[in-house]
Design a protein that fits this description.
By secondary structure, the chain is an alpha+beta fold. The chain folds into two domains: 30 residues; 98 residues, Nucleic acid-binding proteins (OB fold (Dihydrolipoamide Acetyltransferase, E2P)). It contains two helices and seven strands. The protein has a five-stranded mixed β-barrel with strand order 2-3-4-6-5. The chain is elongated and about 70 Å long. Keywords: Membrane, Transmembrane, Transmembrane helix.
Length: 132
């Protein structure tokens, strides 16, 4: 059986439509994977992940309103970068970043590396949740 250009076009068009509809339906179901801090490695750079742990330290940058949270999940420690724009979002919700000190939190962020140390950049204010 020989396919004509018109038949081939129809098949390609239907496949594209089905793919787009599938992406729209399942887009809300795709979420970052939850991992332990010990599992984070340089091969994961720019990957979005989710971790849970206790905030051991909250530090403010010297020259800006960027904050750094040190989180421990029992397998290791990692530094979370909270840029000034996200700090402003958090404060609009009625919280001060210092409030998270000694709290157990869940964080979604993008893996990065700074001066040889792995870290996470907080995605946005909604990506930080207090667990206890």
């Amino acid at each position: 059986m020989q396919l004509t250009d018109q038949q081939l076009f129809k098949i390609a068009f239907l496949t594209a439509i089905i793919g787009m509809v599938g992406m729209i339906i399942f887009a809300g179901e795709i979420s970052p994977r939850s991992i332990k801090i010990i599992e984070i490695n340089p091969g994961m750079l720019d990957e979005e992940v989710c971790i849970e742990g206790l905030v051991e330290k909250v530090e403010k940058a010297f020259k800006s309103d960027t904050y750094f949270l040190t989180i421990n999940d029992g397998t290791g420690k990692i530094r979370i970068v909270v840029f000034e724009s996200t700090v402003n979002e958090i404060e609009k919700n009625g919280f001060n970043v210092q409030y998270f000190d000694k709290k157990r939190i869940k964080v979604t962020g993008r893996v990065n590396e700074y001066r040889g140390n792995m870290g996470l950049v907080l995605k946005d204010a909604k990506s930080l949740k207090i667990l206890t």
